[in-house]
Amino acid sequence: MPHHDTPEQTGSSTPEPKPTDAGFLGQFGKSAETTEFFSPVPDGYQSGRTAYVVVLGSVMSGLGKGIFSASLAKLIKGKGLSVSPIKLEGYLNVDSGTLNPYRHGEVFVLDDGTECDMDLGTYERLLDQNLTRLNFTTAGQIYSEILERERRGGYLGRDVQMIPHVTGEVKRRLRQLAMTSGPDGGPVDVVFIEVGGTVGDYENGFYIEALRELAFEDGKENFCFVALTYVLEPPALGEQKSKAAQLGIKRLMESGIQPQIIACRAENHVTHTVREKIAMFSNVPMPRVFSMHDRESIYSIPEAMRAESLDREVLTILNRHHLVKPLQEDKAREAWHAYAAGITGDRRHSITLGILGKYTALRDAYASIDKAIEHSCTHLSITPDVRWIDVSDFSTDNVAGQLAAHDLHAVIVPGGFGERGVEGKIASVKWIREQQIPFLGICLGFQVAVIEYARHVAGILGAHSTEFRPENAESVISELPDQKVIEGLGGTMRLGGQDVEITPDSLASFLFKAENIRERFRHRYEVDPKHINQIEAAGMMFSGRHPEHPIMQVMELPRSVHPYFIGGQFHPELTSRPLRPQPMFLGLLAAAVRRACPGLSRTEISERWLPDDEAADESDPASAVPASVTH
Question: One of 443, 467, 531, 556 is an active-site residue; which one?
Answer without folding.
Answer: 443
